[in-house]
Specification:
- With 205 residues, this protein is mainly β.
- The N terminus is likely disordered.
- A hairpin with a 2-residue loop joins strand 6 and strand 7.
- It has a 4-stranded antiparallel beta sheet with strand order 1-11-4-8, with no helix packed on it. The chain has a 4-stranded antiparallel beta sheet with strand order 3-9-6-7, with no helix packed on it.
- The chain is built from 1 helix and 11 strands, in the order E-E-E-E-E-E-E-E-E-E-E-H.
């Protein structure tokens, strides 16, 4: 039965001579922007109990990540105290930055967009960005279940990944790549090998 996978084949380079002396700057590269929604994020609001959300993404077998940017904005409860409240951002369990929370009302339409350059050396096959809210509205007596503790990420948030092609040898250890790479986000339709064989037979006839 025909099926559709949200993956694409990792295409090996036919001419690998450009990699004889390493990975030169002129090797083919591409920029890929992926929204949090496309990456499967469905939790954008953090609170005092459920204070963490995750953004998972992958890196293709035949690509090396050269640059990675995290683009996001957020709003928060005006009740939070700025000197003890903040939003932590992690990349593959490494603390990247701590974003401030100001104890004043912030209009969502006036939010500033943040673009953080993440260390490409931390990129792995499977990667994770984590947002963690530390929120306090009272320094003496606080109820973590209080609805005054919240921060919400914009649903327009995204990551931008600059990738460079790698020379991928046709080895069985990579199978099912290059025909199928689970680390790709491009939609791939089913390849009908039987239909291709019949078409070739018809052409000969």
């Amino acid at each position: 039965m025909a099926s559709t996978q949200f993956t694409n084949a990792a295409t090996p380079l036919m001419d690998k001579s450009i990699f004889d002396d390493g990975y030169p700057e002129q090797a083919p590269s591409e920029s890929l922007t992926l929204s949090f929604k496309r990456l499967g994020v469905n939790k954008f609001k953090l609170d005092g109990i459920d204070n963490t959300t995750y953004v998972d993404f992958t890196n293709r077998l035949d690509k090396i990540g050269k640059e990675l940017k995290l683009n996001f904005s957020y709003s928060h409860s005006p009740a939070l105290i700025s000197r003890v409240s903040h939003l932590k951002v992690y990349f593959n369990d490494n603390l990247i930055t701590v974003m401030p929370i100001k104890d004043q009302e912030t209009q969502f339409s006036q939010l500033k967009s943040h673009s953080l350059a993440l260390n490409p050396k931390l990129i792995k096959d499977f990667n994770q960005i984590r947002f963690e809210l530390v929120g306090y509205y009272d320094l003496v007596c606080q109820d973590d279940f209080s609805k005054t503790i919240w921060t919400e990420l914009s649903q327009n948030s995204s990551i931008t990944l600059e990738q460079q092609s790698l020379a991928l040898e046709s080895l069985l250890e990579y199978f099912p790549a290059p025909f199928f790479d689970e680390r790709d986000y491009t939609q791939l339709g089913r390849v009908d090998l039987c239909g291709m064989k019949n078409k070739q037979h018809e052409d000969k006839v």
